[in-house]
Amino acid sequence: CYSHAEDAGWTGYPGGTVAAGAVAGAVGAIVGSPAYLVKTHLQAQTLSSMAVGHQHNHESISGAFKSIYQQHGVVGLWRGVTGAVPRVAVGSAVQLATFASAKDWVCERQWFRKGSWAAVLAGGMVSGVAVAVTMTPFDVISTRLYNQPVDADGTGKLYRGFLDCILQISSKEGLLGLYKGIGAVYLRLGPHTVLSLFFWDKLRNM
To answer: If 26 and its partner were Cys, which of 37, 89, 117, 176 is the partner (CB 3.0–4.6 Å)?
Structure first.
């Protein structure tokens, strides 16, 4: 999606890289939301003696999809998407915009040659930090929305939605509650951002 926006010249306008990245992220979040829902359920699942958080008790990946569909229909597979779309939209917007800007900036300062692998890696490293800082609050919110227990009609028992989740975390846990796990987020997103952007840039040039 982002490449098409670049080819169409949309990223050349002020704020174009941010908007294109956000749209690309939102599309990805919508498409991948059912898989992210199941992933969250399965990762939180453990023995009852050491369980933390709500347990959905799925037996397998396919069993999880089947169980969610049988209980809540197609809509149930997209439960939590309201937290995923802003999460990935913000993450992708920051990731792609800061990558392009940082890469151009280090080349303008003549620290690295334009098109060199070092410039691409530098851009990816800056982008990784920016993504972790901006994305962590949305990551916390989407995880809570995905993993909360639900009523028979699919309504969350703990949070009514995205805004309610923000308000509850902020009031009960403070603003730093929105940054829980930022170290782990960076350990995941840092290498992911650097490597994915590096290979994306090189493959596009090829």
So the answer is: 89
Distance CA 17, CA 24 (A): 10
The residue that leads in pLDDT, 8 or 56, is: 8
pLDDT of res. 12: 81
Whether the per-residue pLDDT at 158 is higher than 80: the answer is yes
d(CA 175, CA 180): 10
What is the rounded (10 degree) CA torsion for 80, 82, 86, 89? 80
Q: What is the CA radius of gyration of the chain?
A: 19
Q: State percent of the chain over pLDDT 90.
A: 7
Model pTM score? 0.67
More confident residue, 44 or 140: 140
